[in-house]
Amino acid sequence: MAGLIVRRVFQLVLLLIGISFIVFMSMHIAPGDPASIIGGPTATQEDVEAIRENLGLNEPLLTQYFDYLRGIFTGDLGFSYQTKQAVSEAIIDRFPNTLNLAIASIIVAIVIGVTTGIISALKHNTWFDGLSTVIALGGISIPNFWLGAILILIFAVNLQWFPVGGLTEPFWTIEGMKQLALPAITLGTGSAAMIARMSRSAMLEVIRADYVRTARAKGVREKSVIMMHCLRNAMIPVITVIGLNFGFLLGGTIITESVFAINGVGRLMIESIAARDFPMVQGSVLLVATLFVLVNLIVDIVYAFIDPRISYE
Protein backbone atom coordinates (compact mmCIF):
# COMPACT_ATOMS: atom_id res chain seq x y z
CA MET A 1 0.00 0.00 0.00
CA ALA A 2 2.85 2.40 0.82
CA GLY A 3 4.42 1.66 -2.54
CA LEU A 4 1.11 2.39 -4.27
CA ILE A 5 0.80 5.75 -2.53
CA VAL A 6 4.38 6.73 -3.44
CA ARG A 7 3.82 5.76 -7.10
CA ARG A 8 0.55 7.66 -7.26
CA VAL A 9 2.07 10.81 -5.72
CA PHE A 10 4.88 10.66 -8.30
CA GLN A 11 2.30 10.19 -11.07
CA LEU A 12 0.31 13.08 -9.62
CA VAL A 13 3.28 15.44 -9.92
CA LEU A 14 3.91 14.42 -13.54
CA LEU A 15 0.22 14.70 -14.36
CA LEU A 16 -0.06 18.17 -12.89
CA ILE A 17 3.00 19.33 -14.83
CA GLY A 18 1.44 18.04 -18.05
CA ILE A 19 -1.94 19.58 -17.29
CA SER A 20 -0.40 22.91 -16.32
CA PHE A 21 1.48 23.00 -19.65
CA ILE A 22 -1.61 22.18 -21.72
CA VAL A 23 -3.84 24.67 -19.91
CA PHE A 24 -1.19 27.40 -19.95
CA MET A 25 -0.56 27.07 -23.68
CA SER A 26 -4.26 26.75 -24.51
CA MET A 27 -5.12 29.95 -22.66
CA HIS A 28 -2.30 31.92 -24.27
CA ILE A 29 -2.89 30.61 -27.79
CA ALA A 30 -6.66 31.23 -27.70
CA PRO A 31 -7.89 34.51 -29.27
CA GLY A 32 -8.18 37.52 -27.01
CA ASP A 33 -5.76 39.72 -25.12
CA PRO A 34 -6.18 40.00 -21.33
CA ALA A 35 -4.31 43.30 -21.35
CA SER A 36 -6.91 44.82 -23.69
CA ILE A 37 -9.76 43.45 -21.52
CA ILE A 38 -8.19 44.87 -18.36
CA GLY A 39 -7.52 48.23 -20.03
CA GLY A 40 -11.06 48.52 -21.29
CA PRO A 41 -12.37 50.20 -24.45
CA THR A 42 -10.84 53.58 -23.61
CA ALA A 43 -7.28 52.28 -23.14
CA THR A 44 -4.67 53.48 -25.64
CA GLN A 45 -2.08 51.20 -27.22
CA GLU A 46 0.52 52.55 -24.81
CA ASP A 47 -1.74 51.67 -21.88
CA VAL A 48 -2.23 48.14 -23.18
CA GLU A 49 1.52 47.66 -23.67
CA ALA A 50 2.16 48.94 -20.14
CA ILE A 51 -0.33 46.44 -18.76
CA ARG A 52 1.28 43.63 -20.76
CA GLU A 53 4.71 44.54 -19.42
CA ASN A 54 3.42 44.81 -15.86
CA LEU A 55 1.83 41.33 -16.08
CA GLY A 56 4.82 39.81 -17.83
CA LEU A 57 2.77 38.99 -20.93
CA ASN A 58 5.44 40.41 -23.23
CA GLU A 59 7.87 37.64 -22.25
CA PRO A 60 8.27 34.52 -24.43
CA LEU A 61 5.63 31.86 -23.72
CA LEU A 62 8.11 29.28 -22.42
CA THR A 63 9.64 31.85 -20.07
CA GLN A 64 6.18 32.70 -18.75
CA TYR A 65 5.38 28.99 -18.32
CA PHE A 66 8.55 28.15 -16.40
CA ASP A 67 7.99 31.16 -14.14
CA TYR A 68 4.46 29.89 -13.51
CA LEU A 69 5.68 26.33 -12.91
CA ARG A 70 8.25 27.59 -10.41
CA GLY A 71 5.46 29.38 -8.59
CA ILE A 72 3.37 26.18 -8.40
CA PHE A 73 6.12 24.29 -6.61
CA THR A 74 6.60 27.16 -4.17
CA GLY A 75 2.87 27.47 -3.47
CA ASP A 76 2.41 30.68 -5.44
CA LEU A 77 -0.35 30.39 -8.06
CA GLY A 78 -0.12 34.06 -8.97
CA PHE A 79 -2.65 36.87 -8.75
CA SER A 80 -5.90 37.45 -10.58
CA TYR A 81 -5.67 39.89 -13.46
CA GLN A 82 -9.14 41.21 -12.64
CA THR A 83 -9.38 41.43 -8.86
CA LYS A 84 -5.65 41.43 -7.97
CA GLN A 85 -6.51 38.79 -5.35
CA ALA A 86 -4.16 35.85 -4.85
CA VAL A 87 -5.42 32.86 -6.84
CA SER A 88 -4.95 30.51 -3.89
CA GLU A 89 -7.05 32.79 -1.65
CA ALA A 90 -9.86 33.06 -4.20
CA ILE A 91 -9.96 29.28 -4.65
CA ILE A 92 -9.90 28.64 -0.90
CA ASP A 93 -12.80 31.08 -0.46
CA ARG A 94 -14.97 29.33 -3.04
CA PHE A 95 -13.87 25.71 -2.76
CA PRO A 96 -16.03 24.86 0.32
CA ASN A 97 -19.19 25.56 -1.70
CA THR A 98 -18.02 23.30 -4.52
CA LEU A 99 -16.97 20.56 -2.10
CA ASN A 100 -20.27 20.70 -0.20
CA LEU A 101 -22.21 20.52 -3.46
CA ALA A 102 -20.15 17.59 -4.73
CA ILE A 103 -20.49 15.67 -1.45
CA ALA A 104 -24.25 16.28 -1.29
CA SER A 105 -24.59 15.21 -4.92
CA ILE A 106 -22.64 11.97 -4.48
CA ILE A 107 -24.71 11.15 -1.37
CA VAL A 108 -27.88 11.60 -3.42
CA ALA A 109 -26.37 9.47 -6.19
CA ILE A 110 -25.28 6.68 -3.82
CA VAL A 111 -28.56 6.51 -1.90
CA ILE A 112 -30.70 6.47 -5.04
CA GLY A 113 -28.34 4.51 -7.27
CA VAL A 114 -27.26 1.70 -4.94
CA THR A 115 -30.74 1.20 -3.49
CA THR A 116 -32.39 1.13 -6.91
CA GLY A 117 -29.71 -1.13 -8.35
CA ILE A 118 -29.98 -3.70 -5.56
CA ILE A 119 -33.78 -3.81 -5.67
CA SER A 120 -33.71 -4.10 -9.48
CA ALA A 121 -31.33 -7.07 -9.24
CA LEU A 122 -33.44 -8.79 -6.58
CA LYS A 123 -36.59 -8.16 -8.65
CA HIS A 124 -34.99 -9.03 -11.97
CA ASN A 125 -37.31 -8.86 -15.01
CA THR A 126 -40.19 -7.40 -12.99
CA TRP A 127 -42.03 -4.11 -13.56
CA PHE A 128 -39.74 -2.38 -11.04
CA ASP A 129 -36.66 -3.51 -12.96
CA GLY A 130 -38.07 -2.23 -16.24
CA LEU A 131 -39.18 1.08 -14.74
CA SER A 132 -35.82 1.68 -13.05
CA THR A 133 -34.05 1.00 -16.36
CA VAL A 134 -36.16 3.61 -18.16
CA ILE A 135 -35.65 6.16 -15.35
CA ALA A 136 -31.89 5.49 -15.32
CA LEU A 137 -31.64 6.08 -19.06
CA GLY A 138 -33.60 9.29 -18.61
CA GLY A 139 -31.34 10.40 -15.76
CA ILE A 140 -28.24 9.92 -17.89
CA SER A 141 -29.77 11.69 -20.90
CA ILE A 142 -31.28 14.78 -19.23
CA PRO A 143 -28.91 17.81 -19.31
CA ASN A 144 -28.13 19.38 -15.94
CA PHE A 145 -29.05 22.90 -17.02
CA TRP A 146 -32.52 21.79 -18.15
CA LEU A 147 -33.18 19.69 -15.05
CA GLY A 148 -31.98 22.49 -12.79
CA ALA A 149 -34.27 25.02 -14.46
CA ILE A 150 -37.25 22.67 -14.19
CA LEU A 151 -36.58 21.98 -10.49
CA ILE A 152 -36.30 25.71 -9.79
CA LEU A 153 -39.56 26.38 -11.65
CA ILE A 154 -41.51 23.66 -9.81
CA PHE A 155 -40.08 23.56 -6.30
CA ALA A 156 -38.68 27.09 -5.85
CA VAL A 157 -40.97 29.34 -7.89
CA ASN A 158 -44.33 27.53 -7.88
CA LEU A 159 -44.29 25.51 -4.63
CA GLN A 160 -41.73 27.74 -2.86
CA TRP A 161 -40.35 24.81 -0.87
CA PHE A 162 -36.71 25.67 -1.57
CA PRO A 163 -34.74 28.86 -2.28
CA VAL A 164 -34.18 29.77 -5.92
CA GLY A 165 -30.39 29.83 -5.69
CA GLY A 166 -27.32 30.74 -3.72
CA LEU A 167 -25.40 28.90 -1.03
CA THR A 168 -24.88 31.22 1.91
CA GLU A 169 -25.73 29.13 4.98
CA PRO A 170 -23.66 26.27 6.51
CA PHE A 171 -24.68 22.93 5.03
CA TRP A 172 -25.48 21.41 8.44
CA THR A 173 -28.27 23.91 9.10
CA ILE A 174 -31.85 23.46 7.87
CA GLU A 175 -31.56 26.47 5.59
CA GLY A 176 -28.23 25.23 4.25
CA MET A 177 -29.75 21.82 3.45
CA LYS A 178 -32.61 23.52 1.64
CA GLN A 179 -30.15 25.55 -0.42
CA LEU A 180 -28.19 22.39 -1.31
CA ALA A 181 -31.19 20.17 -2.07
CA LEU A 182 -32.06 21.22 -5.63
CA PRO A 183 -28.45 21.64 -6.85
CA ALA A 184 -27.50 18.27 -5.34
CA ILE A 185 -30.42 16.52 -7.03
CA THR A 186 -29.62 18.24 -10.32
CA LEU A 187 -25.95 17.28 -10.22
CA GLY A 188 -26.41 13.82 -8.70
CA THR A 189 -29.12 12.52 -11.04
CA GLY A 190 -26.79 11.44 -13.83
CA SER A 191 -24.38 9.77 -11.39
CA ALA A 192 -27.28 8.02 -9.65
CA ALA A 193 -28.37 6.51 -12.96
CA MET A 194 -24.88 5.16 -13.71
CA ILE A 195 -24.43 3.81 -10.18
CA ALA A 196 -27.85 2.13 -10.38
CA ARG A 197 -26.99 0.32 -13.61
CA MET A 198 -23.60 -0.81 -12.29
CA SER A 199 -25.10 -1.93 -8.94
CA ARG A 200 -27.74 -3.95 -10.76
CA SER A 201 -25.22 -5.65 -13.06
CA ALA A 202 -22.80 -6.43 -10.21
CA MET A 203 -25.54 -7.80 -7.97
CA LEU A 204 -26.96 -9.99 -10.73
CA GLU A 205 -23.54 -11.49 -11.31
CA VAL A 206 -22.92 -12.16 -7.61
CA ILE A 207 -26.42 -13.53 -6.87
CA ARG A 208 -25.83 -16.34 -9.37
CA ALA A 209 -22.46 -17.32 -7.86
CA ASP A 210 -21.92 -20.78 -6.35
CA TYR A 211 -21.07 -19.51 -2.86
CA VAL A 212 -24.41 -17.66 -2.69
CA ARG A 213 -26.32 -20.83 -3.57
CA THR A 214 -24.27 -22.70 -0.96
CA ALA A 215 -25.09 -20.12 1.72
CA ARG A 216 -28.79 -20.38 0.94
CA ALA A 217 -28.58 -24.19 0.96
CA LYS A 218 -27.07 -24.04 4.46
CA GLY A 219 -30.10 -22.12 5.67
CA VAL A 220 -28.50 -18.68 6.01
CA ARG A 221 -31.15 -15.98 6.26
CA GLU A 222 -31.85 -14.18 2.99
CA LYS A 223 -31.04 -10.81 4.56
CA SER A 224 -27.61 -12.08 5.64
CA VAL A 225 -27.00 -13.61 2.22
CA ILE A 226 -27.71 -10.28 0.53
CA MET A 227 -25.79 -8.08 2.98
CA MET A 228 -22.79 -10.29 3.85
CA HIS A 229 -22.24 -12.36 0.72
CA CYS A 230 -23.76 -10.49 -2.21
CA LEU A 231 -23.47 -6.79 -1.43
CA ARG A 232 -19.88 -6.80 -0.21
CA ASN A 233 -18.59 -8.74 -3.21
CA ALA A 234 -20.60 -6.62 -5.64
CA MET A 235 -19.24 -3.34 -4.28
CA ILE A 236 -15.85 -3.36 -6.05
CA PRO A 237 -17.10 -2.19 -9.48
CA VAL A 238 -19.69 0.04 -7.80
CA ILE A 239 -17.00 1.80 -5.74
CA THR A 240 -15.03 2.38 -8.94
CA VAL A 241 -18.02 4.11 -10.52
CA ILE A 242 -18.69 6.11 -7.33
CA GLY A 243 -15.07 7.26 -7.13
CA LEU A 244 -14.94 8.30 -10.78
CA ASN A 245 -18.27 10.09 -10.52
CA PHE A 246 -17.19 11.97 -7.41
CA GLY A 247 -14.11 13.16 -9.27
CA PHE A 248 -16.27 14.26 -12.19
CA LEU A 249 -18.69 15.99 -9.80
CA LEU A 250 -15.88 18.05 -8.29
CA GLY A 251 -14.95 19.29 -11.74
CA GLY A 252 -18.41 19.23 -13.25
CA THR A 253 -20.20 21.71 -11.00
CA ILE A 254 -19.70 24.53 -13.52
CA ILE A 255 -23.16 24.39 -15.10
CA THR A 256 -25.00 23.65 -11.86
CA GLU A 257 -23.24 26.47 -9.99
CA SER A 258 -24.15 28.86 -12.80
CA VAL A 259 -27.82 27.78 -12.85
CA PHE A 260 -28.20 28.07 -9.05
CA ALA A 261 -25.93 31.13 -8.62
CA ILE A 262 -23.52 29.29 -6.30
CA ASN A 263 -20.15 30.97 -5.77
CA GLY A 264 -17.99 27.90 -6.23
CA VAL A 265 -14.84 27.03 -8.14
CA GLY A 266 -16.84 26.06 -11.23
CA ARG A 267 -18.50 29.45 -11.49
CA LEU A 268 -15.17 31.11 -10.75
CA MET A 269 -13.67 29.20 -13.68
CA ILE A 270 -16.41 30.36 -16.07
CA GLU A 271 -15.99 33.98 -14.99
CA SER A 272 -12.21 33.76 -15.32
CA ILE A 273 -12.37 32.21 -18.80
CA ALA A 274 -14.69 35.00 -19.98
CA ALA A 275 -12.31 37.62 -18.55
CA ARG A 276 -9.19 35.88 -19.91
CA ASP A 277 -7.89 35.69 -16.34
CA PHE A 278 -5.10 33.18 -17.02
CA PRO A 279 -3.82 32.61 -13.46
CA MET A 280 -7.30 32.00 -12.06
CA VAL A 281 -8.24 29.51 -14.78
CA GLN A 282 -4.97 27.63 -14.44
CA GLY A 283 -5.24 27.45 -10.66
CA SER A 284 -8.84 26.18 -10.81
CA VAL A 285 -8.01 23.48 -13.36
CA LEU A 286 -4.99 22.33 -11.33
CA LEU A 287 -7.17 22.02 -8.24
CA VAL A 288 -9.76 19.90 -10.05
CA ALA A 289 -7.07 17.66 -11.58
CA THR A 290 -5.37 17.16 -8.20
CA LEU A 291 -8.63 16.23 -6.50
CA PHE A 292 -9.56 13.79 -9.27
CA VAL A 293 -6.27 11.89 -8.87
CA LEU A 294 -6.56 11.90 -5.07
CA VAL A 295 -10.11 10.51 -5.24
CA ASN A 296 -8.91 7.64 -7.43
CA LEU A 297 -6.09 6.94 -4.97
CA ILE A 298 -8.62 6.77 -2.12
CA VAL A 299 -10.74 4.36 -4.18
CA ASP A 300 -7.75 2.05 -4.64
CA ILE A 301 -7.12 2.08 -0.89
CA VAL A 302 -10.78 1.31 -0.16
CA TYR A 303 -10.53 -1.73 -2.44
CA ALA A 304 -8.06 -3.37 -0.08
CA PHE A 305 -10.37 -2.94 2.91
CA ILE A 306 -13.37 -4.38 1.13
CA ASP A 307 -11.58 -7.27 -0.58
CA PRO A 308 -8.35 -8.43 1.16
CA ARG A 309 -7.55 -10.60 -1.87
CA ILE A 310 -6.59 -7.48 -3.83
CA SER A 311 -2.83 -6.93 -3.78
CA TYR A 312 -0.87 -3.90 -4.97
CA GLU A 313 2.52 -5.60 -4.90
TrEMBL record:
The keyword Kinase does not apply. Residues 95-303 form the ABC transmembrane type-1 domain. GO terms for molecular function: nickel cation transmembrane transporter activity. GO terms for cellular component: plasma membrane. InterPro entries: BPD_transp_1_N (IPR045621), MetI-like (IPR000515), MetI-like_sf (IPR035906), Opp2B (IPR050045). The chain crosses the membrane at residues 12-30, 101-122, 134-160, 180-198, 234-255, 285-306. Keywords: Cell membrane, Ion transport, Membrane, Nickel, Nickel transport, Transmembrane, Transmembrane helix, Transport. The keyword Transmembrane applies. It holds the Pfam family BPD_transp_1. Belongs to the binding-protein-dependent transport system permease family. OppBC subfamily. This is Nickel import system permease protein NikB.
